[in-house]
Write a structure and sequence with these properties.
The protein has 536 residues and is α+β, with helices and mostly antiparallel strands. Among the domains are: 157 residues, ibrinogen binding protein from staphylococcus aureus fold; 83 residues; 119 residues, no CATH class. Helices cover 36% and strands 22% of the residues. The chain has 13 helices and 25 strands. The strands form seven sheets. Strands 18-19-21-20-22-25 form a six-stranded antiparallel β-sheet. Strands 1, 2, 3, 4 and 5 form a five-stranded antiparallel β-sheet that branches. The longest helix is centred in the middle third of the chain and has 45 residues. The model has no long low-confidence stretch (mean pLDDT 89).
Length: 536
């Protein structure tokens, strides 16, 4: 990714115009690598202007920008993030880009009304180097590093990037000259990605000096894949992006990221359980294959009895009728035969036991895969109920105090979700408890049950409008949507033909059903589902 000096200069100028003299608010963590410092100020007319300064320390795509959008915060208790709180209520005094380097410094005056504040001001220094971005908070009057995103010390090279050290800016570089004779001469001033584009642009017949002038005088930002540039280099995929829209261009739906962050521990727990169950299934299937191979021991025992007159103590092998049968030299023929009969009986018993356990383990994996989708898609209520469900199934332990996960209660109604239209009503569950409530408590025997075939998904029940073909089609599409599929086969059954599977909450056995292949979800249906779930 190339965020070059030229594009950073454009971004820095806009940030300074927005943030100068503004007061910093409480910082937000937007994701694992992304952070925001809200800012606000009153203009000369008394109107409040506000926004958020955003910096991303993603090694593959470090950048800075500002935005007036609202963001959802994620939980971050790291030392670095907590140190950002020291900047709250500080006033921005300058925004400067280090000459010739992808380094941005925001200077702030500390809140003088806070008697506990011992520092007069701070510098927030951002090094936006791909693969090794970093951020420092410098406290004044000491001028030492108060906090650093990533510490790095190499005594042999004299590198001390750690708390309480003095921050050393690299030497300044001059501006990109516009009178170069060869693109290679721009190497000291441009990152490799930008230099490659410049070389190719000139090779395609464009004037070098004219291109350099346009690059250095540009006030616009262009994005090509993950490159942030001051010039489009004639690339058809280049998009001119206003600085405030840079974050949404790269990140997309930040609120979804924040939502997933809130359930990341639950997701990790389910993923670990899936991994354990999958490993168990592989071992069981290997044991089953071994048991099937040992069914031949019945024939071994019979052949040993048939030729027992030819077998003597000390023999190690019997070769008859195309078989090579190992013998225990300590035993006679009957004892060797009986040993094989016992092994056969054990293998025969194992076949039945293993087959049952394999079915239950496959059900468990299907169940957990569905729980993984529910954890990512559910509302806070859905997720809390999901935790209760997983507690009752033994996947998580009960906690005390604030983080108590409540046990499943027969008195509590685990209300499913509904899609209500003039022509009918569709119910669907977002966890196992809601699925069972919908299918076995709310739905009538003749209501129509829908589920994706051979794939984890929600229970979908057509409660009203059963004779309306469009409602049936919509229910099939909803099944696919909730399973994150674009197409698939849907099982359609009367509710009376759906029975509980005793192995796990929410699993069912469908005794009689028809199938319908759905090749795609209509655009109007997608819009309807997104709107309905957002309202929920």
């Amino acid at each position: 990714m190339a965020l070059d000096n030229l594009s950073l200069s454009i971004i820095a100028d806009e940030i300074e115009a927005k943030m100068l003299d503004c007061q910093i608010g409480t910082p937000l963590a937007l994701s694992q690598y992304d952070f925001a410092l809200p800012y606000s100020d009153k203009d000369k007319d008394g109107n409040i202007k506000k926004g958020s300064f955003i910096f991303s320390l993603d090694p593959t795509n470090p950048f800075v920008t500002y935005s007036e959008e609202r963001f959802a915060k994620v939980q971050d208790n790291s030392i670095f993030f907590n140190s950002l709180r020291r900047l709250s209520l500080s006033k921005v005094t300058s925004v400067k880009k280090h000459k010739g380097e992808r380094i941005l410094t925001i200077s702030m005056k500390a809140n003088q009304n806070d008697i506990s504040e011992i520092n007069t001001g701070y510098d927030l220094i951002l090094e936006l180097f791909p693969n090794r971005p970093n951020c420092y908070i410098i406290a004044y009057p000491s001028g030492r590093i108060l906090s650093v995103y990533k510490e790095h010390t190499d005594i042999e090279k004299g590198i001390f990037i750690t708390r309480n050290a003095i921050y050393q800016y690299p030497d300044e570089k001059g501006a990109l000259p516009t009178n170069l004779e060869d693109p290679e001469q721009a190497r000291p001033y441009l990152p490799n990605a930008t230099l490659r584009r410049l070389k190719q642009y000139v090779l395609d017949g464009h004037d070098l000096k004219d291109t350099l002038v346009r690059m250095t005088t540009s006030k616009d930002i262009y994005v090509i894949h993950k490159d942030i540039l001051s010039f489009d280099f004639g690339d058809k995929e280049a998009k001119k992006v206003p600085v405030p829209q840079l974050y949404s261009t790269f990140v997309g739906d930040q609120k979804s990221i924040a939502k997933l962050d809130k359930v990341k521990e639950l997701v990790k727990l389910i993923e670990k359980a899936i991994k354990t169950a999958t490993k168990k299934l592989n071992n069981l299937e290997n044991d089953l294959a071994t048991a099937k191979q040992r069914m031949i021991y019945m024939e071994y025992g019979q052949i040993i009895y048939l030729y027992q007159g030819e077998i003597h103590v000390g023999d190690k092998m019997l070769e008859r009728d195309g078989y090579q049968i190992p013998l225990d030299p300590r035993w006679n023929a009957p004892k060797n035969a009986n040993a094989y009969f016992k092994k056969y009986q054990k293998a025969k018993a194992a076949l039945k036991i293993l087959a049952d356990i394999i079915v239950k383990t496959k059900d468990e994996i299907t169940y957990l895969e569905k729980k993984l989708m529910e954890a990512k898609d559910g509302t806070p209520r859905d997720v809390m109920e999901l935790k209760s469900e997983l507690l009752s199934e033994g996947y998580i332990k009960e906690k005390q105090g604030r983080n108590t996960v409540y046990k499943v209660s027969k008195k509590h109604k685990y209300e499913p979700h509904y899609l209500i239209l003039p022509q009918g009503k569709i119910g669907f569950g977002m966890n196992g408890l809601q699925n069972e409530e919908l299918t076995f408590e709310i739905a009538a025997k003749d209501d129509i049950f829908f589920h994706v075939k051979d794939y984890p998904g929600s229970h979908v029940v057509l409660l009203e409008g059963k004779d309306n073909q469009d409602m049936k089609t919509l229910a099939c599409e909803l099944c696919l949507y909730l399973s994150h599929l674009d197409n698939g086969t849907i099982m359609i059954a009367k509710r009376k033909d759906v029975k509980k599977n005793p192995n796990k909450i929410g699993l069912v056995n469908i005794l009689k059903y028809e199938t319908l292949v759905v090749k795609f979800i209509r655009e109007e249906s997608l819009s309807l589902f997104k709107k309905a779930l957002k309202a929920e």
